[in-house]
Amino acid sequence: MKETPSDLQGLVFGLLATISNTLIGIFMLGAGILLEAVNNRMLGLIGGMGFILTGLFLFVVYSSIKEKELPTLRE
Known about the structure:
By secondary structure, this protein is an all-alpha fold. It folds into two domains: about 1-35; about 40-75. It is about 75% helix and about 0% strand. The chain contains two helices and no strands. It has helices spanning about 10-35, 40-70. The longest helix has 30 residues, at about 40-70. The model has no long low-confidence stretch (mean pLDDT about 90).
């Protein structure tokens, strides 16, 4: 929210909440369908690996943004 102008914060928050809640519903439906074909432990492993990979991806993106933002600290 620091980067978003104050007059657009409500819009951005609303869009993020809408997208998040929609994706949660879609993934819950998909998980229910996948449980018919995949063992529940395997599906849990796949989901856990997805969380780990997503976290690593976001960490790399955040690190690269911060690195570009503060280039004078190294000099």
